[in-house]
Amino acid sequence: MGFITLMPNDPLIWNFIIGVIAALVYVQGIILLMEKMVTSGKLSSDLSRKVIHIAAGSFIWTWLFIDTSYGVTYLLNIAVPLLFFFTFLYKGYRGSPEDKDVKTMSRTGDPRELLKGTLYFTIIMMIAGTIFFGSYLGMLMMAILGFGDGIAPYIGKRYGSHKYKTFGREKSIEGSIGFFVVALLGSLFFWIFLGVLGAIEPPVLADPGVELIEILIVIILCCLVGMVVEAFSPADLDNILIPASTLITLLVVDFVLFSGASFVVFRILGTVL
Asked: Domain map of the chain by residue range?
């Protein structure tokens, strides 16, 4: 697997620096910035949650630097999601409305909100960083969930004038379109950032049996399905259902279009399945 490393002789130390230290500085820096802006009144807690949502989903940038040549040390890429999983678990039960994480990552200031969608998000991050590490499937799961689901509610609240209801939840056409567009842009960004630079193996364009247009169609289809799933997801379950829909979509595409025999989707994604 391709990667960028400055310490090729010490992959364990290097992966610790990237997967733990750099990732923690990155995520915690975003959270502290959002906390400061919310406290000062420059940013609403709702918007701060969306920024953190997108930033957290983008933790896969570390894959470009993770060295996979030394055992399972690549699993250090989930150290920060694991840390926040236990943090949210603890604060969800024992935290107070004045806690910084509660303020910046909950809608109402209720600590128990951290036990729902926020906690589920860290679980998906860990799944992407373990089972689907270094794969196009893992990349698409986090890009669609992080960018699409991160921005859709904000666009819907700010610009949504054409409303519709699903399972009692009010959505907007503008928000759904925003989900698709931003999810697509995020997916294409990470496809280029990780795929072209070599963080995901095998490089997509190295397979002569897979055309560029096929890759784009698959990505667009995943974003469209994610948009529909987000619109109909029960409250707090979208962080699980959206990435699940990405996996199911790819399985269905492979079965329907390629009879499940060519495994073209898995060649496209480079998954470990």
From this structure: 1-130, 134-273
